[in-house]
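Hi W., the magnesium ion complex you wanted:
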Amino acid sequence: MRHYQISELVKEVLFTKEEIQLRIAELAKEIEADYKGKDVVFLSVLKGSIMIMTDLTRCISTPYIELEFVQLETYHGGLASTGEVEVVTELKSDITGKELIIVEDILDSGITLEKLCEILAKKNPKSIEILAFLRKPMNVKVDIVPKYIGFDVDDKFLVGYGLDVDQKFRNLEDVVVFNPDALKQYE
Ligand code: IMP
Ligand code: MG
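Structure:
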């Protein structure tokens, strides 16, 4: 495994692991209040939402929830989006009549979520809401308003807590502003 200096990768620590956990606990409380007595399916959009999905659902105090996963790909390496969304793994379970909460790592242009909502609506859930751990409000191009937002952020490229560059850096515990110069050593 490659060794690195954290200071080489990071321009700025945006949210520490402690700040992230506090916010997640608040979101979980809101969700519990909103969905009292209802059957909820949490749908994680892989791979970026893996951390928020596992931390959030463990803060939900009832075990009567379902965890589902889809995998979409928008970024094909590098820092720029291709704008094309590929469904890598689709949802096979029956969600007819169920209350769905899509759990996404970051809402940037919103193209990924728009496409996913289109696909899911055809499966006739009772409701579809979105939890976006992060949102870059200035970039959103579609008519999608998440019911739950962890943090609004500026238009900077972020890594950590599930967010990647070229599939790496997802396991950093904090959300940090990425230093693109750090990529040079991986070339
Ligand atoms: P959108 O379709 O433009 O909203 O892009 C959403 C996807 O792009 C997210 O689910 C992320 O996987 C990726 N993405 C957007 N911004 C960032 C970032 O700052 N760091 C890492 N991935 C990002
Ligand atoms: Mg994602």
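Residues 17-34 form the longest helix (18 residues).

W.
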